[in-house]
Amino acid sequence: MGIKLLTNYPVVFIPDEKVLVISDTHIGVEYDLSKSGIRIHKQIEKFKDMLDKLIGVTGAKKLVILGDVKHKVPGASIQELKDIPKFLDYLSAKVKVFITKGNHDDYIESIVPKNVKVYGSGGFKIKKYGFLHGHAWPSKNIIECEYLFMGHMQYISRQLVLLKGKLNKDEIKKKYKVKRTGKLNVVILPAFNQFVGSMNVMKKYSKGPFSNEVLNMDKMRVYLLDGTYLGILKDIKK
Questions:
Q1: Distance CA 234, CA 238 (A)
Q2: Where are the beta strands (DSSP E) in the chain?
Q3: Would you say 132 and 123 are in contact if contact means Cβ atoms under 8 Å apart?
Q4: CA 178 – CA 180 distance, rounded (Å)
Q5: CA distance 50 to 54
Q6: In terms of Cα–Cα distance, which of 83, 125, 80 is closest to 105?
Q7: pLDDT for 18-29, tens place per residue?
Q8: Cis peptide before 138 (omega within 30 of 0)
Q9: Cα separations in angstroms, 176 against 24, 58, 120, 151, 168
């Protein structure tokens, strides 16, 4: 695949388009946790530092956020209303920022700066690369892509993991009533914000319309964020 996993970061880089891809920032989760007595520092300064470093190292010109930019749903907390515009203003001064809406992103258009492009839950594409959150079926033009990038599922196997594989073309053709699709290579990113919940990749469970059958889960290749290849999921489970 023409992508790079950036070692020790929950981030993917697409060199030929100079795109950094992240998912599930869940800005404002700290406010939610504080109501349960859990106090953590705001994460956006840490996010800025990480992305500054990665933009510098890669020479990225674009940043794609695969949904769940904010945490509270429905609506937005006071923290989100303050922090999200500042965070995106900061980033959009360095790179072009694109967002595909996640299930936490109701009304996100009213929060983001005007120069940040927001797409609906069906996702969008940049040439042969398609981007979506993963809580809803992608738009029909997305299934023509060679590569798809998704978040939402936030898999973990003791540590955060990134999954690579191929969608089940037969299932996709049946869903969209088409005879042909793109290659449908798929990359499932872990959450950028490590204070949100994750799902155990070893259990037979998926979120949203992407069932284990559609995702071809047993054939997924599993990677730790340090680049360690753990193997094919069905073999790891044995």
A1: 7
A2: 4-5, 12-14, 19-22, 62-65, 96-100, 117-119, 124-126, 129-131, 147-150, 155-157, 159-166, 185-188, 199-200, 221-224, 229-232
A3: yes
A4: 6
A5: 6
A6: 80
A7: 999 999 999 988
A8: no
A9: 27, 36, 18, 21, 13
Please report where in the chains the tokens 């500054």 appear, as a residue. Answer: 52
Those residues whose C-beta lies under 8 Å from the C-beta of residue 74, and which sit 6 or more positions away, are 106
Helix (H) or strand (E) holding 234: helix 233-236
Nearest alpha-carbon partner for 132 in 161, 156, 98, 162 = 98
* pLDDT, tens only, 42-98: 788 999 999 999 999 999 999 999 999 999 888 888 888 999 999 999 999 999 999
What is the DSSP track for 125-152? Answer: EETTEEE--SSSPPPGGGGG-SEEEE-S
CB 217 within 8 A of CB 52: no
Question: In this model, does residue 158 exceed pLDDT 80?
Answer: no
Whole-number Å distance between alpha carbons of 63 and 92: 9
The bridge status of strand 185-188 relative to strand 147-150 is parallel
**Which domains does the chain carry?**
4-236 (3.60.21)
Phi and psi at 224, nearest 5°, equal: -75, 165
Rounded CA separation 234/225 (Å): 20
Return left, alpha or beta for 216; rule: phi > 0 is left, psi -120 to 50 is alpha, else beta: left
- Calpha distance 90→10 (Å, rounded): 20
Type of residue found at 191: A
